[in-house]
Amino acid sequence: MSLIKADLAEILKKQYFFKFKANIDVFSSLVGLQLLAVLFSLGGGMYTGYYGGGMDISMKLYSADMVILFTMIWALITSVTITTKPYRNYEFTFVTNRISSSLSNILFLLTISLLAGFTSMLSANLIHVLVYFFIDSGMLIYEQHMQDIITGVISTSLYIFLFCSFGYLFGAFIQVHKVFSGLIPVGIIGLLLFDGMKLNSTIAMFYFNEPSLFMFFIKTIILAGIAFAVAILILRNMEVKR
Amino acid sequence: MTSLYLLVIIGAIAILSIFLISKKIKTTYAILITYSSILLISTILVGFISIEPENIQIESEAVSQQLNNALKNGDRENIDPLYVMKEESFQIDEEKVLTLKSNYEDGLTFYIERKAEDDGQVDSTIYHIGPIVNGHYVENSLEPYELHYSENMLDYYVNRVARLIFHMNTSEFTINQFKHDDVFAINEIHTQAPAVYLQIPKSLSIDRDGDFFIEYVK
């Protein structure tokens, strides 16, 4: 028994920096996935054309929507991964318990959400540059206000963080029993099909139709908080090393 | 200005990232730093390769209406020089009849103003409202239209098909959610048929050969 009293904040700080270093490879997969999404985005979105009077005009819209979607999937997978046994075993070089471990994981997921949100938004510029130089050198009409960019970074990071919380919860259930790895996805899909996508549209209304960024922030923090809290409760009841 | 802000923010993030990661550069760090650099360069570059749309949103129909009214009334001083495509003068011989001809069939209008004297010269101005893309005027520098005078005939013709390709950024769904714009009304290209304003000698008569409009300025 140690006579030194463990300070939670100090432990969290150490674990956070350790996890940031230990899990740095998740950024390689982020870069890979975002570049893949950029590649898929080069085809453009909505198209409008006009022909007549000696003019042949075509216009295509480009955005980083696909990059954001890919990043959400990456966030889900990454957060499931850090709950797995090999990642948990990293921590036993530290003074730790389930709560400090989960809290440092949440801080790590928050950090990667912010970074991923930022790179997702900036990848739109990469798409424009690639289209201009390598696909079709037309006129690039670029209009983006600073306020929109800040809104985009915040909301994208919140969406990614929300997916991280779902992934973390999913990962926690899998740690209880492997059967959840199949049961939860099947359950979600089954529920959506069973009630004719009503749940799907309700969730969509609750999140995608929220017009206030502040309210969206509150909703996201509450839902992510619930998901993380449940995950912590599940993981807390597990044995120290299993 | 936006690029400058982004440059500062990215710089700060880059410094922070470099501070957080260890000094030994491993593959993941190299990938991350390279990717960040690419995003940074793209952000700066996009400011140079993109065209600046007019800041004021243009009501396409209103602009067309104003131009037509100004030409109809000979009130050309109030027309924005932005819409003047080409100005030319032609010395005509001593004909009494000038035939106007065109292969353009999409609503071309000739506005004709008689001068006070017979100076043997036709002064022409081609007006064209270039493409207005989503309410932004895009400078029209392609000039696919020509006027050619020969043997008592003034021919307005489309010399080639001008191809314009626009790439436009659109806000991501994570931004659109908090904006109150109609996302489905975003894609709009407006063009206006060109108009030719002719100042002709006092006693010159006009004849036509083609499917277009002729308006005499009051």
Automatic annotation (TrEMBL), chain A:
TM ranges are 22-42, 62-84, 105-134, 149-171, 183-208, 214-235
The record lists the organism as Cytobacillus horneckiae
Protein's name in the database: ABC transporter permease
Q: Which UniProt keywords apply?
A: Membrane, Transmembrane, Transmembrane helix
Automatic annotation (TrEMBL), chain B:
Q: Which key words are in the record?
A: Membrane, Transmembrane, Transmembrane helix
Lineage, top-rank taxon, reads: Bacteria
Q: Where are the transmembrane segments?
A: 6-22, 29-51
What name has this protein been given in UniProt?
Answer: DUF4811 domain-containing protein
Q: Which organism is it from?
A: Cytobacillus horneckiae
